[in-house]
Design a protein that fits this description.
The chain is of the alpha+beta class. It is 29% helix and 29% strand.
Length: 196
């Protein structure tokens, strides 16, 4: 089932999410619905706060990046084969020189900006079976994970922009929060939630 994606301005996107355990209600169904929602919106990542749930879970599928002409064959293969669910994740280390990449977000449609992030991470997380893993990633995969991880920390990519950039996109962000935007996937806007 496709879930509505929460738009910029909703309080859930600014909350630090809570850990869950394997008894979380209908977890497998939620994971399935989140993947369906992410694919329906042509995303490469989706975090639980983006569907209104303040829990530490996100998923990533970088296969759309495998079509990128600028990537090496090795990178294309890595992107094509990378699909994971991260539960109760903690980034343990971020290292290297920060690099810029143009990011967007399903909760902030039609806004794309360069964001600086470190190229290598070490992350600890649990999978769908609550087995614990500690893994290292770099490049684009690390970046997608960092973006989704920020969501469970209550951070949006727009929070990482300079005050000048924030002023430039302020009008767009206000329109998104009021639902004054055309999108081709299901969204829930803060202005509409308040009317209920």
């Amino acid at each position: 089932m496709i879930l509505p994606i929460v738009a910029y301005g909703d309080a859930v996107l600014k909350k630090q999410a809570k850990d869950i355990d394997k008894d979380y209600p209908k977890l497998n169904e939620l994971i399935e619905n989140m993947y369906e929602t992410m694919y329906g919106a042509f995303g490469v990542g989706l975090a639980a706060p983006q569907v209104g749930l303040p829990i530490r879970m996100f998923m990533v599928d970088t296969s759309p990046f495998a079509e990128d002409e600028d990537l090496s064959e090795k990178e294309k293969k890595q992107m094509k084969d990378f699909k994971k669910t991260f539960i109760n994740a903690q980034i343990l280390e971020e290292e290297g020189d920060e690099w810029a990449f143009n990011e967007g977000c399903l909760s902030i449609p039609d806004v794309r900006e360069d964001v600086f992030r470190k190229p290598k991470i070490k992350i600890q997380y649990q999978d769908e079976n609550f087995d614990t893993h500690v893994e290292e990633y770099d490049g684009l995969i690390a970046r997608v994970i960092q973006h989704e991880y920020d969501h469970i920390e209550g951070i949006l990519f727009t929070d990482k922009l300079s005050s000048f950039k924030k002023r430039l996109i302020k009008g767009k962000l206000t329109n998104i929060s009021k639902g004054k935007i055309r999108i081709d996937y299901k969204m829930r806007f803060p202005a509409m939630s308040k009317k209920r």
